[in-house]
Amino acid sequence: MAKNPQGAATYTADNIQVLEGLEAVRRRPGMYIGGTDIKALHHMVYEVVDNAVDEAMAGACDRIEVILEADNAVSVQDNGRGIPVGTHEGTGRSALETVMTKLHAGGKFGGGGYKVSGGLHGVGVSAVNALSRVLIADIARDGFLHRQRYERGIPIGEVETIRPMEPGESSGSRITFHADGDIFDDTDYQFDVLLQRLREMAFLTRGVTVVLIDERVTPHRERSFYFDGGVRSFVRYLNRGRQVVHAVVHAERELEGTQVEVAWQYTDSFVDNTYSFANTIITPDGGVHLTGFRSALTRVINDYARKANLIKENEDGLSGDDTREGITAIISVKVPDPQFESQTKVKLLNAEVRGHVDSAVADAFGQWLEENPRDARAIVEKCLTASRARQAARHARDLVIRKSALESSALPGKLADCATRDSTKSELYIVEGDSAGGTAKQGRDRHFQAILPLRGKILNVEKARIDKILRNNEIRALVQALGIGIGDDIDMEGLRYGRNIIMTDADVDGSHIRTLLLTFFYRFMPPLIEGGHLYIAQPPLYLVKAGKLREYAYSEAQKDAIVAGLGGRDAGIQRYKGLGEMNASQLWDTTMDPANRRLLKVTVEDAALADRTFEMLMGTEVPPRRRFIQTHASAVRNLDV
Ligand code: 0RA
Question: Is 509 an active-site residue?
Answer without folding.
Answer: yes
